[in-house]
């Protein structure tokens, strides 16, 4: 079966993975996020206990 021969496909996969890791990924990570996280203090929501009718 020719699908089990890794000779051409392994090389293509390694080259494409290296291209992505070394060239494309640093360029993508250099962009500033469009929605930066805010530095607001964390607030906990007020909760009220649930009154069960059978208790």
TrEMBL record:
Give GO cellular component annotations, separated by semicolons.
mitochondrial membrane; proton-transporting ATP synthase complex
Query: Which regions span the lipid bilayer?
Result: 6-24
Keyword annotations from UniProtKB, A to Z: ATP synthesis, CF(0), Hydrogen ion transport, Ion transport, Membrane, Mitochondrion, Transmembrane, Transmembrane helix, Transport
Enumerate the subcellular locations listed in this protein's record, separating them with semicolons. Answer: Mitochondrion membrane
GO biological process, any: proton motive force-driven ATP synthesis
Q: How does it sit in the membrane?
A: Single-pass membrane protein
Ranges for the region named Disordered are 36-55
Point to the regions of Low complexity compositional bias: 43-55
What GO terms are given for molecular function? proton transmembrane transporter activity
Q: Which residues form the signal peptide?
A: none
Q: Which InterPro entries match?
A: ATP8_metazoa, ATPase_protein_8
Describe the family membership recorded for this protein in Swiss-Prot or TrEMBL.
Answer: Belongs to the ATPase protein 8 family.
PANTHER family found in the cross-reference section: ATP SYNTHASE PROTEIN 8 (PTHR39937)
User: Protein name, please?
Assistant: ATP synthase complex subunit 8
């Amino acid at each position: 079966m020719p699908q089990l021969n890794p000779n051409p496909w392994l090389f293509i996969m390694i080259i494409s993975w290296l291209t992505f890791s070394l060239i494309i990924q640093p360029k993508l990570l250099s962009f500033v996020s469009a929605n930066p996280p805010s530095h607001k203090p964390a607030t906990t929501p007020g909760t009220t206990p649930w009154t069960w009718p059978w208790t």
